[in-house]
# Entry
Amino acid sequence: MEEKQYDDTDKGVLWKPRKDQTMRGVGKINNNGIDTDSILVRQENMQGEAYYGLYQKVGTMYPREEGANENAPNFSGPFGDKRRVAMWINTKPNSEETYLKIQVQDKQDNNIVDMSGEPQVEDQSETPQKEEINEETIPF
# Structure
């Protein structure tokens, strides 16, 4: 019997940083005339030896708007020029440990995508207020 493989295309998970992971620097790096927002993270390998990961910004996340559907992503935003990313706060089964479940999909022309697959035409009449991002908003 063939084992079914999990397809994790356009999906992801973010966990609370490990105790050995600390942000050591944040700034811009210019590469061939293009500035990129970057961060440097110190972490340790299995032997306890330090090494550093250099990360570049790939998107901007916004909290769910006040009064939005409770099934809408807790955070969403652009992911490059032609894609969007959405994040939902989840709790690990049989645990209180929280994580962010991620979905990436193509943008849809002139529509707002609620990441459930149903495009909604943008309503210009009233701009809902966005939740404020603070340490309590992100689950870890």
User: Anything to note?
Assistant: Residues 19-56 form one domain.
